[in-house]
Amino acid sequence: MMDEEISREKKENELKIFNEAVEYFNQYDDISNHEPLKSTEMFNSILLRDQMLSELNNLKELILNNPDSKISQLSTEEKEVFNKFMKAYSICPICGGHNHYYNLKKIYFDEDVSDLKEYLVENMNSREKKIGALTVITGIVCCGCFKKYLKP
């Protein structure tokens, strides 16, 4: 009973926020129905509206591609592989810092990097390889190391 109440309240709150956004867009949708605005004010209003629409589209993408919902759809065997992947790559191979759980999930479920995921899954048990005198460690770098060493 308590879960149903919380769920109902959450849905009502989400609907309220959505309705407020729709009301905002309706208010500025047809500028000709309003008092004349200075050109810069009109431009700023249109720019703000466009930015908000863009952010709503981004939010829609995030909701539709939410890795958490994809985890629940995995089979027991696939969940084991997922959990091993998360554990194997939770530490940055450069600095030893922790990787963000969200970013690891995104890599695991992102179709655009499925080849990389397959390679990482195949090599998660033997991450260190000797190549001559060098030891090569396979891993996923943290955000800090990515910005410091890999970002152009």
Describe the structure concisely.
The chain has 152 residues and is mainly alpha-helical. Helices cover 64% and strands 5% of the residues.
What does the model show?
By secondary structure, this protein is mostly helical. The chain has two domains: 2-64; 75-150, no CATH class. Helix content is 64%, strand content 5%. It has seven helices and two strands. The chain has helices at residues 2-29, 39-64, 67-71, 76-88, 101-109, 114-122, 143-150, and strands at 128-131, 134-137. It has a two-stranded antiparallel sheet. It is extended, with a radius of gyration of 23 Å. The termini are far apart. The model has no long low-confidence stretch (mean pLDDT 78).
Strand order of the largest sheet: 1-2
Poorly predicted spans: none
Largest sheet: 2 strands, antiparallel
Q: Domains counted in the coordinates: how many?
A: 2
Give the overall shape. extended
Number of helices: 7
Structural Rg: 23 Å
Q: Provide the helix percentage.
A: 55-70%
